[in-house]
Write a structure and sequence with these properties.
The two termini are 84 Å apart. The longest helix is centred in the N-terminal third of the chain and has 38 residues, at 176-213. The strands form 5 sheets. This protein has a 5-stranded antiparallel beta sheet with strand order 2-1-5-4-3, sandwiched between helices. Strands 7-6-10-9-8 form a 5-stranded antiparallel beta sheet. Helix 25 crosses helix 26 (614-623). It has 632 residues and is of the alpha+beta class. It has 26 helices and 19 strands.
């Protein structure tokens, strides 16, 4: 936008107003030079320039450029700040000498209050360009000199100062005002450019920092497929030299993809598996498209396979949440199990946790993981008995794309791969099919896995914690479990006692669950009869059943008095016979059959009361040949 005045009349009125102000300020029209009271010391002048160095530098540069065109033609130019102090002056020798005599030199202030109507003072007062013929200068001694002046604005519109051009009246013309205005506008324009350059430099710095700070490798390429920028991570992953900039990406790597599709058709792709330095990775590529639709390049993002796995684990919640503080009880048998578990947490030896269903085997496994040096790594759990045998291999080892009908595009990692650097918890390992035991054993011995349908092995570093409610030695005798796998997974072993063998812990557990589910005190909620009932019951589903029963009682009572029938154990408890001469399997069979009968063959209700899953209950029904309705 031009800052030239609209018409000459406006300037004449502006000059007239300045004369009136000069008289009001009692300025002597015969004043010969700027008063000494308006002078800065050299130190003050230096500081004033330093405080506005950008304005000074750019203003001086524009004045010097313009004066180079006018040199020797009888002109002098000055730069003053918003307070009227002259910061710089340049001109023909005779005019400079004239201005020196009038103290029109750096360090002096030239305002209407100091000298009356003059170009610098009037521009500061009106913040408009002005041309003052010599005969309209307020000082009589200055009337042989004419002046043009223009304000210099910052990019936010605030006044920075003035550029003035002076010359002998016979050589000056109002057209000189256009030159001064152009110089003033150029200063503002340069300030804008400098700000943009600074902002761009800061953004580039931030972008460079972001590129280097990330865990992913990043490469940018131009429309011809040549490298524009890389970060250190990408150079390491792809084994690129620092001098790779400007070279074709495809010629420096073994990665092949259709540049035509990306750079000319704007197509992108995600998570394409590639080979990188020391392992596998995934490549994503996105075109860079301008607002007008022009494709100016592309961004390649390379992610290490381990990072993808970690992200998948975080998204699926594959973490250990419990610590040893979550194990409630003081029974000596339980205390002994906890002490062995704490020893196991100090090393990475394979561990077998034995115990009946519902005793808290996974709770122990999570506590061990969280107390180990792998606590910040994945904790992946797999129930070997809950997955059909034909699906277990792909669940454990993963599969490649196209490995079988319905295989996910791009393939999928298995639990062994997801647990890399962390812990894999194999629950109900006694239910693992015999043929799968061979493959698992090989993976544990070699530290490598092979996906279903794959041709290359993948190294894994995992700590194995297994759990079972079966007697694996008996399973070995029945040739249902491999002895070599048994010895591989039982470097250490823990036996968690059933709840009926640590009844002294029941009050602690009851109180804990009451507070957890209802923020209640069990001593205030339960009368002596119910407490006796709970203590005398055998709890075949162990802690899990006790937890479920208490939650059930709280919900059924709905804030009213808790009764014995709310627990769902009274009938079962009254029918319990002495178990001294019964085997564990016989006792389990009897309890399941009675529970099923009581609940009219409702599998879901029975499983919840017993504290086991539906698949586990179905397996036990088949194992003990207990009749049940297939539709229940």
């Amino acid at each position: 936008m031009s800052i030239l005045p609209k018409n000459l009349l406006d300037m004449e009125l502006s000059i007239l107003s300045s004369h009136h102000r000069s008289k009001k300020y009692h300025v002597d029209p015969n004043i010969k030079k700027a008063p000494e009271s308006s002078r800065l010391t050299q130190k003050e002048l230096k500081k004033r320039i330093e405080d506005q160095i950008t304005f000074f530098t750019i203003g001086k540069e524009q004045i010097d450029k313009l004066y180079n065109l006018l040199q020797g033609t009888g002109f002098c130019m000055a730069l003053a700040d918003k307070d009227g102090y002259i910061l710089y002056i340049v001109g023909d020798a005779d005019l400079e000498e004239h201005f020196k005599k009038r103290n029109c030199v750096p360090g002096y202030r030239w305002t209407e209050r100091d000298l009356g109507t003059c170009a610098i003072g009037l521009v500061l007062a009106d913040q408009k360009p002005v041309y003052i013929p010599g005969n309209q200068m307020y000082s009589m001694l200055a009337q042989n000199i004419s002046n043009s002046g223009a304000p210099v604005f910052d990019i936010d519109g605030s006044l920075l100062g003035v550029i003035s051009l002076s010359g002998y009246t016979e050589k000056m013309h109002i057209h000189t005002l256009g030159l001064v205005c152009q110089a003033a506008e150029a200063v503002t324009s340069h300030l804008q450019e400098q700000l943009h350059s600074k902002e761009l430099a800061i953004k580039n710095k931030y972008m460079s920092a972001l590129l280097e700070a990330g865990t992913k490798g990043i490469v940018t390429i131009d429309p011809n497929g040549c490298i524009v920028q890389t970060n250190k991570k990408a150079r390491t992953m792809l084994e690129l030299d620092k001098d790779c900039i400007g070279k074709p990406f495809s010629s420096l790597t073994k990665i092949n993809f259709n540049f035509e599709q990306v750079l000319h058709k704007g197509k992108s792709f995600l998570a394409r598996e590639i080979k990188i330095n020391k392992g596998n990775g995934f490549l994503a590529l996105d075109p860079v498209v301008m607002k007008n639709g022009e494709i100016v390049g592309a961004i390649l993002t390379i992610t290490e396979q381990k990072e993808i796995m970690q992200l998948a684990i975080e998204m699926t919640g594959a973490k250990a949440h419990f610590t040893f503080d979550a194990i409630i009880g003081k029974n000596p048998k339980l205390t002994e199990a906890v002490e062995i578990a704490k020893i196991a947490a100090k090393n990475t030896a394979s561990l077998l946790i034995c115990g009946e269903t519902g005793t808290g085997k996974e709770l122990f496994a999570q506590a061990i993981h969280n107390a180990s040096n792998r606590s910040d790594r994945p904790f992946v759990a797999l129930n070997c008995g809950a997955i059909p045998s034909e699906l277990l291999e792909s669940e454990l080892f993963g599969y490649e794309e196209g490995a079988f009908t319905g295989a996910q595009k791009g393939g999928r990692p298995g639990k062994l791969e997801l647990a890399d650097t962390g812990t894999l918890f194999l629950d109900e390992i006694g239910d693992m099919p015999f043929n799968m035991q061979v493959k698992l054993l090989r993976a544990l011995q070699t530290g490598e896995i092979l996906r279903v349908g794959g041709i290359k092995t993948i190294p894994v570093d995992i700590r194995i914690i297994s759990a079972t409610n079966k007697n694996l030695k008996q399973e070995i005798e029945k040739e249902c479990f491999r002895p070599d796998l048994f010895y591989r997974i039982t470097t250490l072993s823990i036996l968690i006692p059933p709840l009926r063998e640590r009844k002294d812990d029941i009050p602690f557990l009851v109180n804990y669950f009451f507070k957890r589910f209802g923020n209640l005190d069990s001593h205030k909620c339960l009368d002596e009869k119910i407490q006796t009932l709970i203590m005398n019951y055998s709890w075949p589903g162990n802690v899990r059943q006790l937890e479920s029963a208490i939650e059930r009682a709280i919900h059924l009572a709905d804030g009213k008095t808790i009764k014995a029938e709310h627990f769902g154990i009274e009938t079962a408890n009254s029918n319990i016979v002495s178990s001294e001469n019964m085997t564990l399997d016989e006792m389990e069979k009897k309890i399941i059959a009675e529970c099923l009968e009581k609940n009219q063959n409702n599998i879901s209700s029975c499983a919840k009361i017993l504290g086991i899953s539906r698949p586990t209950l179905y397996r036990k029904l088949e194992k003990y040949n207990i009749p049940y309705s297939k539709n229940s």
